[in-house]
Each structure stands twice: as structure tokens, then as C-alpha cells.
Backbone:
């Protein structure tokens, strides 16, 4: 990261960061959540309270993953709630509000991820009052209320809070839909998948392309509920602090397969993976995963996540073969 670029630092507000600064004749590090970027000053929540850091004194810095919540390899060490909040940074809704520790998200109804409340903290009020606030917030925007309901692990510190939130919505008559798995893997093991699994190179005439923005050919293969992506959907695709749009193309420029990679908080995300039917079972999905993993390594991410529908057996088998393992499950709750 450019140590003196306030614009680049601003993209990481809300992330955990480490900042190395020159202090007198020596160097020291400040580690904590980046609270704000105000002109040429960074405000970081250190161990003993907020710390103001002048950009002119910064010699290096970067976002780092949230603090581990359990004893496990990095891709499995975050609690369920922390990983859910991290994933929200990779797919940021057009409108976001905090109700205490609950994240309210709205983006014109495009994807449940960007149009649901994420109740992974304390709402700062009685739960029954918080439920009314959630319903009213979505009604004001002409959207149906939806809640993300992660299934906690018993060894996580946030287990009781997650269970209480889910119980609140279910007691009010909300029902579960769209059960989804969150899979994670070490970036180092996802690189060079073709070589590790003994697969062949891409079919003749196909090449991999990486771009910072989705072009019309990439967007042509992206569908949500069978529909072409709307304008606010494109905004979601480019809402992470950083992303890459990977595609495998024919000599004529047609897209045979595509995926989106994203970067935030020291993690990469893999979303919108698709291989056209006529090109399936030829190693394209593994090539796309490998390409996004190499991009992730170049940007210092150590772990990668993805989300897949629980009933998508073919995709789950492909991801398991690539090296992804289960972190947790979640569903959406609707009245």
C-alpha cells in the first residue's frame, strides 16, 4: 500500500490494519481497526484507545485479517461472526447502516447478500425492539425484510449471540430459505491447481484474461435469477476495496468461463464462478480458481473463501477437489 495515499487508506476504513511509522529516531507499529481517514491523519483503534497517525510519518502499512477466534490454521481460525463481517466487506451494499452491532444492507433487491440484516453483534436494544427496527428499515426502502442466519460453532465466543438472534427471528415466524455453505482454503494450496491435481492445460485456443473491471463480454455470462445484471448489480461487483475479473476466452473473444476475485482484510473471495455448458469437465473451473489464487497471493492474501448453495452437489465436489473445506453454514430468514 502507498504509505502516504489517503485515498487508498480510505478504502480500508473498518478493516484491521497495521501501520509502521517513524517515531523520533525509531520505528513503531500501530495495530487495530482503522476508524477514519481525516485529511492526512489516520485514526486507528489501538489496544489502549484511538491513536492518531500522521500520514507523513507512515513508512508502511497494510490491512491484516481479523484476530483469530480459535486455534486453527488461518483459513479456519476466524469465528463465524467475524468471517461473516469480513465477507460483507467483499460485497458491500449500496446502503449500509448499523443497528448497534447489526449490519443493515440494501441494494435495490439485487442478491440476498446485499439486502439482508447481518445480526452478528449486539443491537444495543432489546431484541424484540431490534426486530421492529429491522422490519421498518426495509419497509422504508420498499424491500422485504431478510436476515442472514449463520450457524455458529460451539467453540466460538459469539455462539450465544448468534443463537439468540436466530431464535428471535424464528420465534417471530420467520422461515429459513437458501441454505448455503461457506468454504475456505489456504491461498498457497490453491495456486497451480492444474499441476497439483495432474490436470491438463487449457484446451487449445483458450486463454485466461484478468481485468480490473468487468467488460461487456464478462457481464454477458453473469446472471442473477436468470436476468442480466442491473446497474446496481454492477456496482456490487466492484464494491470491494479491490477486485479482479477473471475469464477464459476463445480466440474470437467469447467467454467460456468466468469468476470474480475480491480482496479485503487480508482475505480474498471467489464469487460469480461460471463455466459455459459446452466447456465443462475440461479443467476450466480449476484454472479460474488457480488464476484468482495467484492474483490473491500477489496481493498478500493468505486465505480465500467462497459461498455455494448446499444443494449444488457438482460445485461442492469441484471445490472440495480444489482444496476448499467447510467453515460454516448459513441460511436466510424471511417472514
Residues:
Amino acid at each position: 500500500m502507498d504509505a502516504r495515499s489517503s485515498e487508498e487508506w480510505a478504502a480500508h476504513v473498518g478493516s484491521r490494519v497495521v501501520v509502521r511509522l517513524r517515531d523520533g529516531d525509531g520505528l513503531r507499529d500501530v495495530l487495530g481497526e482503522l476508524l477514519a481517514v481525516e485529511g492526512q491523519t489516520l485514526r486507528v483503534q489501538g489496544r489502549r484507545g484511538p491513536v492518531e497517525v500522521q500520514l507523513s510519518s507512515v513508512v508502511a502499512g497494510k490491512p491484516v485479517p481479523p484476530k483469530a477466534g480459535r486455534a486453527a490454521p488461518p483459513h479456519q481460525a476466524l469465528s463465524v461472526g467475524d468471517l461473516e463481517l469480513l465477507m460483507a466487506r467483499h460485497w458491500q451494499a449500496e446502503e449500509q447502516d448499523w443497528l448497534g452491532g447489526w449490519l443493515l444492507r440494501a441494494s435495490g433487491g439485487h442478491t440476498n447478500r446485499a439486502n439482508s440484516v447481518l445480526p452478528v453483534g449486539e443491537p444495543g436494544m432489546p431484541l424484540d425492539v431490534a426486530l421492529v427496527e429491522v422490519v421498518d428499515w426495509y419497509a422504508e426502502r420498499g424491500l422485504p425484510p431478510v436476515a442472514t442466519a449463520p450457524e455458529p460453532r460451539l467453540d466460538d465466543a459469539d455462539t450465544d449471540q448468534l443463537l439468540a438472534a436466530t431464535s428471535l427471528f424464528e420465534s417471530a415466524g420467520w422461515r429459513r430459505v437458501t441454505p448455503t455453505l461457506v468454504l475456505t482454503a489456504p491461498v498457497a494450496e490453491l495456486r497451480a491447481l492444474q499441476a497439483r491435481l495432474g490436470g491438463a492445460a487449457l484446451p487449445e485456443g483458450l486463454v485466461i484474461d484478468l481485468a480490473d473491471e468487468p467488460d461487456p463480454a464478462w457481464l454477458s455470462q453473469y446472471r442473477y435469477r436468470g436476468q442480466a445484471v442491473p446497474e446496481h448489480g454492477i456496482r456490487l461487483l466492484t464494491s470491494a476495496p479491490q477486485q479482479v475479473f477473471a475469464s477464459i476466452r476463445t480466440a474470437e473473444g467469447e467467454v467460456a468461463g468466468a469468476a470474480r476475485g475480491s480482496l479485503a482484510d487480508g482475505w480474498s473471495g471467489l464469487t460469480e464462478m461460471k463455466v459455459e455448458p459446452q466447456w465443462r469437465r475440461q479443467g476450466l473451473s480449476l484454472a479460474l480458481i488457480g488464476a484468482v489464487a495467484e492474483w490473491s497471493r500477489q496481493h498478500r492474501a493468505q486465505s480465500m473463501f467462497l459461498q455455494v448453495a448446499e444443494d449444488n452437489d457438482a460445485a461442492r465436489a469441484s471445490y472440495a477437489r480444489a482444496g476448499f473445506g467447510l467453515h460454516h453454514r448459513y441460511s436466510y430468514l424471511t417472514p
